[in-house]
Amino acid sequence: MYTKILRMKWVAAALACLAALPARADAPQQDGPTTLAIFYRANPADRPAFRQYLRGNELDRLAGWKKGGILKAYQILYNPYVDEKTWDAALLLEFPSYSQVGQWQDIEQTSPGGLDRRGLALARPIETYSLDLRWAEGDGDPDRGVYYIINYTVGNDENWKKWDQSFMGYGLPQMHGWIRDKVLVSYKMFTNRYDSGSRWDQLLLLHYHDLPALGRRDAEMAKVRAELAKDPNFKPLIDHTHAFHTEGNDILAVPVVK
Fold it and tell me: Residue 177 sits in a domain of what CATH number?
């Protein structure tokens, strides 16, 4: 009974913290997810050439697909560091509708991962995720600044309920504070529609103004948490949030632009 009362308290706290938050929650698409994330890995010796390829050939191809109505938006992010446990580049594709995702499947038959023969000689697609945008706040030029990317594995249905409610009350207010303080430009939280096997469940993109802003990340986190801890609705969430998920390898990334 005592555990049940505690659980009710932190759920109520999460909802109270969320009440005045100007974040957007998008319901999952009824006919299928309209965002794809494709991740690539290159040999260290090929990384410079692959990055140049992305800046040239790949961006031109993506622009053509957008002009043709297949894509609504796209973004390429590049990991500035070599790390064999993560990825070298990521392609985020947003489609106007789920039917355009089907058109992308046709493209994949001759261009795996959206890469032509030259691109495939430099890197290989290693994973593709179908994503729903769940939470977003902030606005700014996505081709400027630096990104800090985190993936989470939540697990079973019971953990999903607890973690979702806790994230709304614990995570969203903090990120709202970082945007308010002009450290963070924006954030987007995506949910993996097909999360079976060893795949992660959620992907968080934190868009910082620049590298110095990212360098203030720890100090800003401590500052905003201290502010929020004064709210009795926030306190019950601090000790419970991390019990419902595991965090994957965090990745620093920069946008690839012409």
Answer: 3.30.70.100
Asked if the structure places residue 2 within a domain, the reply is no
Task: Tell whether 1 is covered by a domain.
Answer: no
- Look-up: residue for tokens 């110095």? 212
Q: Which percentage of the chain shows pLDDT scores above 90?
A: 65
User: Which residues share a beta bridge with 246?
Assistant: 153
pLDDT band at 244 (very low <50, low <70, confident <90, very high): low
Residue 96 amino acid letter: P
145: left (phi over 0), alpha (psi -120 to 50) or beta: left
CA 41-127-67 angle, 5° bins: 90
Query: Looking at the predicted structure, is the pLDDT value of residue 8 above 50?
Result: no
pTM for this predicted structure? 0.85
Q: Write the DSSP symbol of residue 247.
A: E
Q: Where is pLDDT greater, at 124 or 28?
A: 124
Angstrom distance (rounded) from CA 39 to CA 130: 12
In whole angstroms, how far apart are CA 133 and each of 3, 82, 87, 234? 32, 28, 21, 25
Residue bearing tokens 């990384």: 47
Domain of 46? 7-255
Domain count, the chain: 1
Judge whether 67 lies within some domain: yes
Round to whole Å and give the CA distance between 154 and 159: 6
Phi and psi angles of residue 98, each rounded to the nearest 5 degrees, phi first: -70, -25
Across 85-93, average pLDDT? 96
**Cα–Cα distance measured from residue 55 to residue 48, given in angstroms and rounded to the nearest whole number:** 11
Where is pLDDT greater, at 15 or 25? Answer: 25
Quote the CA–CA distance of 256 and 34 in Å, as a whole number. 22
Band of pLDDT at residue 6, cut at 50, 70 and 90? very low
